[in-house]
Amino acid sequence: MSKPFRMALTRIVIALRRVRDWTIAAVVLSLLKLISLLPAHKAIPLVDRLARRIGPLTSRHKLAMYNLARAFPEKSEAEHTQIATDMWGNMSRLAAEYVFLDQIFDFDPESDEHGTIEVEGAEIFLKLRDSDKPFIVFTAHTGNFELLPIAAAAFGLDVMALFRPPNNPYIAKKVLAARRTSMGHLVPSRAGAAFTLARRLESGGGVGLLVDQKFHKGAKTSFFGLEAHTNPLLAKLLRQYECDVYPARAIRLPGGRHRLVVEPAVEIPRKPDGSVDITATSQMLNDKVESWVREYPGQWQWFHDRWQIKHLLK
Question: What keywords are annotated for this sequence in UniProt (predicted)?
C-alpha cells in the first residue's frame, strides 16, 4: 500500500468518524432540546423510564453486567440486572438534569428548609470558604455528581474541577458550555492539566477531582477486590502541596431529590520518612469510593471500563 493511498484512506476514516460523531450529537442534543419543552418533574421521570428499556439493549449493558458479576459474585443475576437497570435510569436522569439545572438546584445556604437539594456537611463548605489554605475535594461518578461544584459555588467557594470531556467532540463542546455557566473553573483532563491544578493549590485555592476513572498507567490497586490501575494525580499533588483532602458525593433520593455529602478530611497514608505514600493513598481513594458504590450500587456507572476488561468481551 503506497503512502499517498494510506494518507487518503486515513483522511476518509477521519471524515467518516466526524460524520458519525456529528450525527450522534445531533440526535442527542435534539432529544435534550425536545425534553426541555416539558416541565422538569415530567421530563426527568420520562427519560428514566425510556432509558430503563433502551439501556439493556445496548452493547454497554453487556460490560455493565460483566462488571457487576465480578464485583458482586454473591448477588444473583436478577440482582445484577436490577442494579444495571437502575444505573441506566440514573444516567438518563443525569443527562436530562443538565437541561433543568436552574430549576433543580434550589439549595439556599441561608435557609434551614430542604427543597430538591439538601447538603450534609455544610459547615465544612463554610470552613473552607473562610480559610486561605489550599484543599482538595474528591468524588466519584455517583448520583448527580455534577451538583457538587454548583453547591460549592452556592456557598461562595471557588473550586477548580478537573473533568474528562466526552469522546464525542460536538457533545463535549455543548457539555463544557453548560458546565461553565454554573460550575466555576473547569480544567479538561489533558496534557498540562496537572500543572494548572498545582498552580491553583500553590495560590491557596481548592481543587476538585473525580477519582474513579480508568487509568492505563499508575498505581496498582484493587477495587471490589479486583486489580485496577488508579490515577496517582491526587497523591502526587499532595507530595507537592500539603493540604487537607475531603471526600464528597451525591446521592439520589426518592421523589427526584438529591443529598450532597461533604465528609471530614481523611488521613493520608505516609511512608516512614513522612512522605505521601502514593500507592496507599490511591488505595484509600478506591476504598472510599467502593464504600459509596456498595451503599447505592445503582447510582454508579457500571458500563465504565474501570478494570480495563472491555476487550475480553469482543
Answer: Acyltransferase, Cell inner membrane, Cell membrane, Membrane, Transferase
Considering just the CA atoms, what is the radius of gyration of the chain in Å?
Answer: 20
Nearest to 111 by CA among 122, 125, 102: 122
pLDDT in tens, 90-100: 999 998 888 88
| 67 in any annotated domain | no
Same domain, 133 and 20: no
Does residue 139 share a domain with residue 259? yes
User: Letter for the amino acid at 231?
Assistant: N
pLDDT in tens, 34-74: 888 888 889 999 999 999 999 999 989 999 999 999 999 99
Determine if the pTM surpasses 0.90.
Answer: no
Decide if 153 contacts 183 (C-beta within 8 A).
yes
Helix axes 233-240, 193-202, angle to 10 degrees: 40
Which is nearest to 38 in space by CA: 94, 107, 103, 114?
103
Beta bridge partners of 135: 206, 244
Cβ proximity of 137 and 248 under 8 Å: yes
Q: Which of 73, 69, 154, 150 is nearest to 108 (CA)?
A: 154
Question: What grid cell was written down for 183?
Answer: 460550575
Nearest alpha-carbon partner for 188 in 206, 204, 210: 210
Q: Give me the domain span that covers residue 183.
A: 109-298
